[in-house]
């Protein structure tokens, strides 16, 4: 095992005792994500909304980092709670025209299909 693989495995403690294949719905968090969530939760528990502006600054900082990662603009990055919510926003936000088509795999997760099926009504 090389150093990079060892460091990656250390990010995911679940990997020390099992192999995790199902990342489609809920997956193990990397250690650094858990640490960030723990820090936010502790801050919110101890200070309420006192640090709200800092939290929003952190969100914008991460949005900027992700935009740079994908070579995009900050205003092209949106955080959503899950893939299904993101697909629903896209499906309902596009300017559809008669004859437009959507191709969906026949084994797609149901919540990712419903927004597209809903478009048939219009």
From TrEMBL:
It holds the Pfam family Aminotran_5. InterPro entries: Aminotrans_V_dom, PyrdxlP-dep_Trfase, PyrdxlP-dep_Trfase_major, PyrdxlP-dep_Trfase_small. Residues 19-121 form the Aminotransferase class V domain. PANTHER family: BLR3095 PROTEIN (PTHR43586:SF15), CYSTEINE DESULFURASE (PTHR43586). This is Aminotransferase class V domain-containing protein. It comes from marine metagenome.
């Amino acid at each position: 095992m090389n150093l990079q693989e060892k460091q990656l495995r250390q990010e995911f403690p679940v990997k020390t005792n099992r192999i995790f294949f199902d990342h489609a719905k809920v997956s193990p968090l990397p250690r650094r994500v858990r640490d960030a969530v723990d820090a936010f939760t502790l801050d919110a528990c101890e200070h309420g909304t006192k640090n709200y502006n800092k939290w929003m600054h952190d969100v914008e900082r991460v949005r900027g980092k992700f935009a740079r990662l994908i070579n995009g603009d900050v205003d092209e990055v949106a955080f959503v709670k899950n893939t299904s919510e993101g697909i629903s926003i896209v499906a309902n936000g596009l300017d559809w025209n008669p004859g437009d088509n959507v191709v969906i795999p026949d084994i797609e997760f149901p919540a990712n299909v419903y927004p597209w099926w809903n478009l048939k009504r219009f």
